[in-house]
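USER:
Before I trust my own judgement here, I would like a peer's view. Write it directly below this note and I will take it from there.

ASSISTANT:
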Amino acid sequence: MRIVVPAGGIGGARFLRGLKAALGTDAATESNQATENQITVIGNTGDDITLFGLRICPDLDTVMYTLGGGINEEQGWGRTDESFTVKEELAAYGMKPTWFGLGDRDTATHIVRAQMIAAGYPLSAITTALCDRWQPGVRLMPMTDDQVETHVVVNDGDGRRAIHFQEWWIRHRAALPAEEIISLGAEKAKPAPGVIRAIRNADAVIIPPSNPVVSVGSILNIEGIREAMADKTVVGVSPIIGDAPVRGMADACLDAIGVRTSAGAVAEHLGSDLLDGWLVDEADAGTEVDGIEVRSRPLYMSAPEATEALARAAVDLAVELSERRAGQR
C-alpha cells in the first residue's frame, strides 16, 4: 500500500512507528524501500519558530528523530542523551526566551537547517538532506515550503494580544484562555513539492492521533491538500479518549475554536467530506457520526505491540472502506 499520513509531533510520530511495523517497512529507507508498502508523511510546520537566529521545526524533527532512533523516549521530543549547555550559556548572557528547551544535540540540527536556509534551499530539500542522516524509513516532507506560523490570541493582565503558539503551549502550558488561533501565512502558502502528487498516488490517507487543530488542522489549511485528500479513502484515529486528550492540551485548542472535547465532536469538526472512517477508543464505543464509519479499538499507544495493533486496525479499515467504495462504482 501507498499511505499518506498528515502528522504532528509526538502522537503522530509514535503512530508512524507502529504503522511501519504493521506494514513491514521497519528496515526500509526513503531511497530504497524494502517492501512494496510506502509511507509518505506530510509534516506540520505551523509550530515552527525562529529563535536565536535558528529555524526550529519541532514536528518535522520529532518524526525524524523518533523514526530514526534518536528521540528521547521518556518525553517523546528532543534528542536522547541530551545536554543543555548552550541554553544555559544563552541565559547567562541574558538572551531570551529562556522557556524554550533548546538542547545541544538538537541545536546542531537547527544550525544545519539555518545554514541551508541562508544558502537558499527550500525547507523540503532541507528536510530530505536531514533525513539522509536519520533514515526514518518514510518519505518525510513539510506541508509547505512557505513560512506559516500558528499564533494564539489571548487576553490576560497585559490585554488582548497575539503570541506564538510555542509560547502559549510551552511557557504558559495553554493555561491562558485562547480567544482565537491564527495560522499566519496559510492563506498564501502552497503545498511543498510532491505533496499533492503523493496524495493523488496514495491508496489511502491515515490521520494519526495528532492535535486536530494546530497539527492536522494546520496541514489541511494549506491550499489544495484537503481537497486532494477528499478524493481518497481517509481513516482517522481519535486523539480524544473519554472526553480528554490522549496527550497534551488539545482540549484547550478545541475550546478556542468552539469544538467540544469528544471523539465524536472532533470527527464532526474534520467532516464527513474528508473522513470515511474514524477509530475511537473502547471507552467511546457507541459513538456515531453521520456519514463516517466509526469503529472502537484500544487507542492507548502504551507499548510497541499496542501501537502496531492500532496502526493495523487503521489500515484494515482503510482497505475495507476502499473496497466498499470500489464496489459502489
User: Anything to note?
Assistant: Residues 28-34 have pLDDT under 50 and may be disordered.
